[in-house]
Amino acid sequence: MIARLDAIIRHPIKSIGLEPLESAPLSKGRALPFDRHWAILTEKSPLSRMPDGTVSSWGKKINFVIGRSAPELMCITAQLDEATGTLTLSHPRAATITVQPENDAGLLLDWVQQFWRDLPAPTVVVRQPDRPLTDEDTPYVAVLNRASLTDLSEKLGQVVEPERFRGNLWIDGWPAFHETTMVGKRIRIGTAILMVDRPIERCRATDTNPLSGQRDIDMLRELDTRYQTRNFGIFCKVVEDGVIHRGDEVEVL
What we know:
Elements: E1 4-10, E2 19-21, E3 23-26, E4 38-42, E5 77-81, E6 86-91, E7 94-99, H1 105-113, E8 122-127, E9 141-145, H2 146-156, E10 169-172, E11 186-189, E12 192-201, H3 219-227, E13 231-240, E14 242-245, E15 250-252
Parallel strand pairs: 9-10
Antiparallel strand pairs: 1-2, 1-10, 3-14, 4-8, 5-6, 6-7, 9-13, 11-12, 11-15, 12-13
């Protein structure tokens, strides 16, 4: 069976909304464009917003508004107009909002606050030049395997939604957990080439059902029990520029 790129997903604001794409350019040493381009700091963070809108330094997830702490955030979807920087955010139980995240920060923070109850207040929108505001201080592309997700769903006896894992690229056609054998190898997707750097260790955000906004799986315990690991998916670095399209053949070099 030929492996193919089944989905391309980015998250314009860290933990706040995911957006499926049909295609995307990949550049050497960079992440998926506009993935975690913005993030929201909380009042407890020692980080700050610089005059140009960038964050003072990279920081761990605890500094930001994140889905691990507020499960309702996991239900949000996004649509970004790259030309204007206008972002539309939708939630199944809230009014849709359209903003330019930095210019309309007050409106955005007020909207997020309804899902971020009884937690350190969201204070400011920031971005980071040249790399995404992910939980890693490296511009990775997160690659996941549909067959691995199917295997996990079968073992748990329920559908495990892919949105729980906040990945960028989903591959269809690999055997279950074939990705765990790929560390150090290169993968061609479309005209881009990526190198597999290491597995992704998961966090508590994956406990949450992205449809209900409720925690319904103790994911770390289940991964430990079923597979003796908390890893799910692989972090990759882009090593050769190219363009990827949903449906592209995926080749392990």
